[in-house]
Q: What sequence folds into this?
């Protein structure tokens, strides 16, 4: 399987021709007019979309081939955008961790047994650390988004299975 890198997400449909506004990760913002094809994560499947036109107006606006109406464009809203690693500049192929985890807002965090801990209300960046903010029993709790705690990620169910240190949620 060809390696892929998440480079951003579709924001929303714009205009009457089926174009979409795109938010690219900071590391990839300059590639908005350089990629001929991207992969969109649609219900867990990575589907190729060929970029017919692109321009920058506060954010990137892309027009995909065979997408000609706002109704069609709305079907891909908020979809994560992936690029083939081989399509990225050689000097930046190793940048693969997202610089913004806000896309996790609304996702569920499950404990190691699969029980619901809570739904992510917000994601905030603290010095050197991303934190998931949840409301549990009326109290705001913070869970670090770190590789050591994450056991698995289910993009289809928008859930993260985590093994948290004992007492973390009691802080």
A:
């Amino acid at each position: 399987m060809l390696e892929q890198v998440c480079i951003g997400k579709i924001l929303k449909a714009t205009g009457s021709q089926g174009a979409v506004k795109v938010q690219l990760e900071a590391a990839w913002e300059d590639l908005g007019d350089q990629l001929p094809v991207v992969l969109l994560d649609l219900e867990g499947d990575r589907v190729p979309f060929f970029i017919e036109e692109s321009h920058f107006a506060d954010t990137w606006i892309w027009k995909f081939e065979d997408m000609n109406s706002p109704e069609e464009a709305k079907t891909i809203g908020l979809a994560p955008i992936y690029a083939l690693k081989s399509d990225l500049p050689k000097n930046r192929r190793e940048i693969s961790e997202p610089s913004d985890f806000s896309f996790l807002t609304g996702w569920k965090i499950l404990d190691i047994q699969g029980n619901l801990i809570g739904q992510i209300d917000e994601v905030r960046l603290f010095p050197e650390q991303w934190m998931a903010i949840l409301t549990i029993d009326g109290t705001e709790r913070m869970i670090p988004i770190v590789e050591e705690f994450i056991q698995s990620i289910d993009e289809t169910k928008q859930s993260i299975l985590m093994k948290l240190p004992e007492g973390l949620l009691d802080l």
About this structure: The mean pLDDT is 87. Residues 4-87 form a domain with the Elongation Factor Tu (Ef-tu); domain 3 fold (CATH 2.40.30.60). The helical segments are 70-74. The longest strand covers residues 45-57.
